[in-house]
Amino acid sequence: MISLSVKFKKLLLGLILINFITLPIFSKPPKLTVVMVIDQWGYEYIQKLKNNFNYSFKFLINNGIFYSDAHHPHGTTTTATGHTAIGTGAYAKDHGIVLNSWFDPDGKKVCCNDDDPKTTAVFCNDKLCNYGKSAKKIMVDGFADQFVLASEPNKARKSFSLSYKDRAAIGMGGHLSKNIWFDDKTGLFTSSKAFFKELPKWVTRFNKKKKISKLKEISWKLCYPRKSKYYRFKDIDINKKTDYKFAGYKFSLISPKDGETPLVHKGGEDKQSYKQDKYQIFLKTPLANQILLDLSKQCLNENFNGTENFLLFVSLSPLDWLGHMYGPQSIEITDMIYHLDKQIKDFFKFAQKLAGKKELLFVLTADHGLEPIPEVMQLEDYKKSTRIMVQPLIKQMNKIVEDKYKIADIVLGFSTSMFYLNQKIFNPLGKTKQNEILNDLKTFLKGQKGAKNIWTFDELKNLTFESYQLENFYKMQLYPKRSGQLICQPQPYCVFTPYSTGTSHRSAYDYDTHVPLMLYQKNKYEKQVINERVWIPQLPVTLARILGIAKPSATPFEPLPGIKFDSPEIVNTTMEKITDLIGIN
User: Rounded to 10 degrees, what is the CA torsion of 44, 50, 54, 59?
Assistant: First the structure.
């Protein structure tokens, strides 16, 4: 009996040990999560410049989890739509931010984050700041909202979102994050009453220290010697060879003689002075990226105590503004990316030191890519590339309707990929006449060189596509009373645009949707290359699972492949609770 009892105890102990070993072990989430977005950082830059990276990009590609085929599922890849997808994990048909701006049913053009200045007034001591900004037009909750809602008693989770663009900061941070952006009327970083009772003192101190509004000169020195391998590309001098004929600026922003001469003398008469807005040159230089990264460091120094779970979004906008002017095949774009390679390394090391190397989860991605300048593509012998100017189209469309139906000014305007009709004129018309007008306008637009598909809102909404089809991306971006009545899909390397120079990102093609995606946490998320196609809205779902919080409630996406999770999926907070907390209606 004694021997049997000993054997039984040993067996029981063995079963307990086996059960303990096989139980899931839940590790703590990282103390600091940084999601960094480089506005307009298309994947083509990785393909082109990968062998020339020496700092942060090289480290993350070689040491992090690197997704080589990550895409945004949008037909029209705009800053607001892309950042809100990163924030919510949802399609635009659900989160509502279809474009940067649109025409409302009253015919007023509204920006995606505009709001009542009385309740969401931007902090400013200047009469120019009599406007409001909020996340009210984001119709769902986001990852940052769920992060803040997961706060424990006496242990608040903090989330900040920083960018030069309000639509980027708010798109990522959503309703409950502390969102901060740059006011280009005053030259100051600011926020609104939607996110703070008053502007934080550390932001005010930062503004006084940097004195952006007082900058008298800006120099842009090349990152490497001009004649080195870093700039030896067939297409890089195309603007120079054509005297910047097709660029938005007819001169280079890179200072002569590697920065020995200042780029801009404010108030000067030289050809490099941009007189319309004194901040526009500054916002397209590496200096602007550095100052935003300095603000991000200041944010962490002032708000992260090293013991809590902290979330920081950073969106670097200057590459986007620069790309619109010069296109992806320019020395300006190439050199700014080299500067970012260095600058982000410095910030990454700072964040690691602050949180601890194993306590930092770092994510790097983009909101969209960029199309080459159409005229440059033509010089490269791609003759089908076309710039489709929309102002003449609107004039002709209105003439078609006026001549046939005696109705004037039916076409109100154009935004990014959509034509908007004057609803006060259009809605009272009978259904038959409405359809006739729409069909006439569709026929006209489809006859334009460079147009592939033209849909009406109702037509596109009712069509059925496979999820991977480009046409489906346009369908998933429809939202009632925000989308236009006519939606345009151009042919590859063609663009509907109001601008006669430069370029944009207005399509569902690879050059606009394909972006880098990298995650890194020491000893945790390392050294993997994932080549299967993934979607950027999977990112917030993945981060929610890593951090052990509920995923955004409107996302239909699953987590990214290649990630091993320590914690089970958390059941979402009910939509009713979220609606009550963040005031979605």
Answer: 90
Domain at 329, CATH number: 3.40.720.10
Instruction: Name the DSSP class of 27.
Output: P
From first to last of its 585 residues, what are the pLDDT tens digits of the chain? 444 444 434 443 443 343 433 334 456 899 999 999 999 999 999 999 999 999 999 999 999 999 999 999 999 999 999 999 999 999 999 999 999 999 999 999 999 999 988 899 999 877 667 889 999 999 999 999 999 999 887 788 999 999 999 999 999 999 999 999 999 888 999 999 999 999 999 999 999 999 898 887 788 999 999 889 999 887 776 566 667 889 998 888 887 765 455 555 443 334 444 444 668 889 999 999 999 999 999 999 999 988 789 999 999 999 999 999 999 999 999 999 999 999 999 999 999 999 999 999 999 999 999 999 999 999 888 999 999 999 999 999 999 999 999 999 999 999 999 999 999 999 999 999 999 999 999 999 999 999 999 999 999 999 999 999 999 999 999 999 999 999 999 999 999 999 999 999 999 999 999 999 999 999 999 999 999 999 999 999 999 999 999 999 999 999 999 998 876 777 655 445 555 555 554
What pTM was computed for the model? 0.91
Q: What are residue 319's phi and psi, to 5 degrees?
A: -60, -35
**68 inside domain:** no
Domain boundary among 497, 526, 543: 497
Q: Tell me the C-alpha distance between 552 and 540, whole Å.
A: 8
CB 147 within 8 A of CB 88: no
Find the farthest-apart pair of alpha carbons in the chain and give their distance in angstroms, rounded.
107
Same domain, 390 and 492: yes
In the block, residue with structure tokens 């079963």:
15
- What CATH number is associated with residue 398? 3.30.1360.150
Torsion sign (Cα): 230, 64, 83, 491: positive
Q: Which residue has the tokens 């033209």?
A: 454
CA 54-56-60 angle, 5° bins:
110
Single-letter code of the amino acid located at 271: K
Q: Which two tokens stand for residue 574?
A: 């009910």
Q: Report whether 113 contacts 83 (CB < 8 A).
A: no
How far from the centroid of its chain's Cα atoms is residue 248's Cα?
A: 22
List, edge to edge, every strand of the sheet that includes 451-456.
Answer: 411-415, 418-421, 486-490, 451-456
Phi-psi region of 465 (alpha: psi -120 to 50; beta: other; left: phi over 0): beta
H helical segments located in 38-190:
43-49, 56-63, 79-88, 92-95, 143-149, 166-173
The range of the structural domain enclosing residue 95 comes to: 88-219+266-367+515-582
346 and 442 in a single domain? The answer is no
Contacts of residue 104, Cβ cutoff 8 Å, sequence gap at least 6: 110, 481, 482
Nearest 5°: the CA angle 54, 60, 62 is 80
| Backbone conformation region of residue 562, classed left if phi is above 0, alpha if psi is from -120 to 50, else beta | left
Distance, in Å, from the CA atom of 488 to the CA atom of 372, rounded to the nearest integer, reads: 19
- Does 225 fall in a domain? no
